[in-house]
Amino acid sequence: MNLNSLRPAAGSTKTRKRIGRGPGSGLGGTSTRGHKGAKSRSGYSKKIGFEGGQMPLQRRVPKFGFKNINRVEYKAINLSVIQELSAANNLSKVGINELIEAGFVSSNQLVKVLGNGSLTTKLEVEAHAFSKSAVAAIEAVGGNAVKL
């Protein structure tokens, strides 16, 4: 046996349909596309969501709600996280840079401090926004909240 005498197993391969090669082939004329209709035409491509002329789902379902284009998205940081961070690194001032270095926020995020948890040490906290309870808790310990 040589490489040039290798053949596929009998019955394992089929010859492909050569459509549109004249009436003698049995596959000429309409070339397996049938008569008339969009699918028989050249250049036909079905649109995504097309349902054969029936009103498509994306047009049947009602639309509701709206997106506020002026919404400002904040990354929420609780007082408990700030307390842990200041205790671990022995900090008296916790700002955006300390939160970025600790991996709590990325450099392009805005930070809002929320009042969940409690502070035990006097801290100066810098952030873009504060909740009322967070400001009250920070000032109760003798610290101050600096809004950037």
Question: What is the strand and helix layout of this fold?
Answer:
Elements (H helix, E strand, L loop, with lengths): L56 H4 L13 E5 H11 L3 E2 L1 H7 L7 E5 L9 E4 L1 E2 L1 H9 L3 E4 L1
Can you tell me about this structure?
- The protein has helices spanning 57-60, 79-89, 96-102, 132-140; strands spanning 74-78, 93-94, 110-114, 124-127, 129-130, 144-147.
- By secondary structure, the chain is an alpha/beta fold.
- It has a three-stranded parallel β-sheet with strand order 1-3-5.
- It is elongated.
Please, what is the oligomeric state?
Answer: single chain
Question: Helical amount among residues, as a percent range?
Answer: 10-25%
Helices and strands, in order, run as HEHEHEEEHE
User: How many individual helices?
Assistant: 4
Largest sheet, spatial ordering of strands: 1-3-5
Number of strands: 6
Overall structural class, as computed from helix and strand content, comes to alpha/beta
Mean of residue pLDDT values: 93
Radius of gyration: 35 Å
Note the main sheet: 3 strands, parallel
As residue ranges, the low-confidence spans are: none
Give the N-to-C terminal Cα separation.
Answer: 83 Å
Q: Sum up the overall morphology in one term.
A: elongated
Strand content: 5-15%
